[in-house]
Amino acid sequence: MSTTTTRDTTRPAPAEVPRAGRRRRVRSSTLNFWIFTGPFLAGLVIFVYIPIGWSAYLSFFEARYTVTPDKFIGFDNYELMLTSGDFTGSLVTFTVFAAIIVPVTWALSLGLALMVHRLRFLKAFFRSVFFLPTACSFVAASLIWKMSIFSGVRFGLMNTVLGWFGVENTAWLADPNPPWYWLVIVTVRLWLQAGFYMILFLAALQNIPPVLYEAAAIDGARPGWQTFRHITLPQLRATSTAVILLLLVAAYQAFDEFFNLLAKSTWGRPPLVELYYTALGEDQDYGAGSAGAVILTLLICMVTLLQGRFLGFGKGDDAR
Amino acid sequence: MTTVRPLRARRGVLGSAGLYFATVVCALLFLVPFYLIVRNALSTDAEITGENWKWFPTDVQWGNVTELFDDATVPFGRSLWNSAVVGVLHTVGTLLVCSLAGYGLARIPYRHANKIFYAVLVTLMVPAAVTFVPSFVLVSSLGWVSSLQGLIVPGLFSGFTCFLFRQYFLGFPRELEEAARVDGLGYWGAYWRVVVPNSLNFFAAIATITFISGWNAFLWPLVIGQDQESWTVQVALSSYMTNQTVNFHLIFMATAVSILPLVLVFLFLQRWLVQGVAQTGIKG
């Protein structure tokens, strides 16, 4: 921040505070604490804690079309979700999706960052170009992908370009065999997110001390792959790890592009889309939907705790 | 030495030519979707779906703009208005509520402050999107479905934003606040007269990020927007994709209009946006 402070070096020694005064001070700071944090904490309880609790409660009831059910059915909702195949299938879809999107986005955003970092002229311009898709929503991007680039008919951009080389029209989204829809889904997210992560890598690249490269050059490391492999990549480790985790969590929440690109097709449904159709579709089965939400919440909590274990994050105050 | 140098130099020139070539190719690929939006938004349907690919419309169809807002099947103008209201109130509300809480947690001594901070941290483990079913259950029993408060209020209490503010305030120079205290200001006065005015950069960065994610949000507005009057622009856009009749020029004009405000935000506030990304991205 651009604040300059005139530091007062002669800090006054803490005066002797009489007992009553100190107690009043404590009480006033307690009051202030609640004035500052009260609204937020109340909202957090009402809109985060209560829904999760209520949902855990609903998940043990038969709750179709109602959120105040009276028929207790034990773990039936969980059994339904875990054995129906649709929900477990959505977890498989997520796994496939994450296995593709995470490494590909990581590689592309790192590649873009390395490229932009080396530019001497127009650096800011190209950085903006790659970053610009961040301003675009998933819905808008899905629309362009579905209606224009990967439109299954003759005038779609992809089919037009392929047509110049004599390739037949491809139904990119309408047909799961072969699963071309993955190409559409992955490129949409890649386009939207690569610039965002590029910014993170650029910041990290700027923080690598140039001395390291000089030392490597003296030691005879050739510029290019050797320096990249032994200097740049290890220096980016913290950022890389953070980027991969962020990508994973984002993929877990993927909804917009699947919902809009695949509409109501029964293939390629990630967990949140599956939940949407369970809880808010024809059946309005809030019980099963809640059970699904509880399962997803537990899964992501487990992942977060494990990652904290392995990476030493989440140690409260020193978490940064 | 003398024989090596020209070789090096030549390789340098070739290398940077290659670098610029690759960068330009990538940049063009990244711009293709924007080009398609503009091209399709200003063409007629006949040209978009025509036999031969046309790179530019023969006649630029500015009339598509008025046609979009006159079209009665999707209340696009209304949805744009809703998005603007939601975007602004969401941003102002989040900043207000979360920054105050962040400051309280960072600076005001209280016996149970640590426990409360952990209760906030726990919520960071669960992304809000994952619990949209429970949130919908709550909001619907409050009777807030299809209402602006239903769209805005549940999103204001972001544990992550509060966490960011707390971390930021921990690094705020204490001397400034002490000076304010000497001048007789309490926590409240010091916060508004000294802390906030000296933190405008950070506020701007968080505000930019919050506004963009609010404008682009889709899942929650979709769940809440059960009737057309309460649609945000993203829900309206999405509805075009499932409509029976497809008017390509209208759909793309709608996309163009929906993106325009954010492109402006992007161009004018990019400095804060980059800061915000760096700030929010690496949370560790």
Describe the structure.
The complex is a heterodimer of chains A (320) and B (284). Chain A is mostly helical and 320 residues long. Chain A has one domain: MetI-like (MetI-like fold, Orthogonal Bundle), CATH 1.10.3720. In chain A, 67% of the residues lie in helices and 0% in strands. In chain A, helix 5 (138-149) packs parallel to helix 11, helix 7 (181-206) packs antiparallel against helix 11 and helix 12 runs antiparallel to helix 13. Residues 1-17 and 313-320 of chain A have low confidence and may be disordered. With 284 residues, chain B is mainly alpha-helical. Chain B has 2 domains: 4-65; 71-281, MetI-like (MetI-like fold, Orthogonal Bundle). Chain B has 15 helices and no strands. The longest helix of chain B is centred in the N-terminal third of the chain and has 38 residues, at 4-41. Chain B is globular. At the A-B interface, helix 1, helix 3, helix 4, helix 5 and helix 7 of A face helix 1, helix 4, helix 5, helix 6 and helix 8 of B.
Q: Which radius of gyration of chain B do the C-alpha atoms yield? A: 25 Å
Kindly report the oligomeric state of this protein: heterodimer
Share of helix among residues of chain A? 55-70%
Proper CATH architecture of the largest domain in chain B: Orthogonal Bundle
Helix percent of chain B reads: over 70%
Detail the poorly predicted runs of chain A.
Answer: 1-17, 313-320
CATH superfamily of the largest domain in chain B: MetI-like
Largest interface: A-B, 106 and 109 residues
Might you state the CATH topology name of the largest domain in chain B? MetI-like fold
β-strand percent of chain B reads under 5%
Mean pLDDT across residues of chain B: 86
- Tertiary shape of chain B: globular
Structural class of chain A: mainly alpha
